[in-house]
Amino acid sequence: MSEIFFCPCPRGLEPLLAEELQACGASRVDMTHGGVASEGDWAYAYRVNLESRIATRMLWKVGFTRYRSEEEIYRLANAVTWARHFDTINTIRINVTAIKSPLKSLNFVTLRIKDGLCDHFRTIKGGRPTVDTVSPDMRIHAFLTEDTCTLYLDTSGEPLYKRGFKRAKVEAPLKENLAAGILKLSGWQPGQTLLDPMCGSGTFLIEAAQMALDIAPGLGRTFAFEKFRHFDAELWQSLRRAAQQRQRKEPELAIFGADIDPQQIRVAEANLDAAGLAGKVELLICDVLDLEAPDDAGVLVTNPPYGVRLSSGDELHAWYPKLGDALKRGFAGWNAYFLTADLEMAKLIGLKASKRTPLMNGDLDCRVFEFKLVAGQNRGQH
Q: N or C: which end of the chain has fewer CB atoms below 10 A?
């Protein structure tokens, strides 16, 4: 039986997510700002959680109504057959988001949804689940428009960009699904040489290595759907086995990372090791301005410092022309991709951007600038 799902993702990556969902067997996809709605059976839902590199989570639509007051939302929450999906021993958390809702308090809406759900359980089971806002078994998501309320049960649990290994804690990391999306936007293919010259904690490197070795991103973790009452353990194990069997075994990859900060290289090494990728990626302590290209051609992809994290704007703006010179001098034949929230970068680097893709990195309005580096490239303002 076909179910309706919604997968949010970083803004700007919706077309890539739609492709992923179709590859996982969606019977219908429908893109909207910030995500993709789709239809499919439970094998499809399990596969998306296991395989998607770009989705933030996978939400299962369980209720819908038009509303004018909180009372109608309570009635919707009370009418959903929650007790068929999970039990009173499971903890819950309710998240409400709204666009143009006329209701005064989203906190009160959240409370009424909880009341409706708990009253349903009391009627059916004689007890109710407890709320756990930190690490719940079941996350219920409500989305309100001006006059509609849709209820979803989260099949994923922790966000899908949490790949299941414990990362070293660093400031302002790039989310894994955004990194994977940028790698796909760049057109990089496993087998091509890849370099992140300002690799920080190594997110681009890990995502690229997992792609190169065909490692399903969800293999190392658990999901909320495993606690659903209708969970099909046999089907899930068969999907996991198939994913494990198709992994490629390669001693090392044409993937390279560098950073000027030795501590960042240590963090990247620790993260690669935690992801089971120790020794697969070559790391180097080096200033990007002094870096030699590891191959005659390849893809350079990076998330450079842009004021928010490391340097002042003035320092950065003096540094960009030096970066442009270093790329022109040492990376002819390469394609370079920079994710930045500093929209002055393309003008100051002195290279002509052949493409600029708008993306959201959390709350930051960013661009991915593409520079095709050819021998003897003319520097020009634009």
A: N
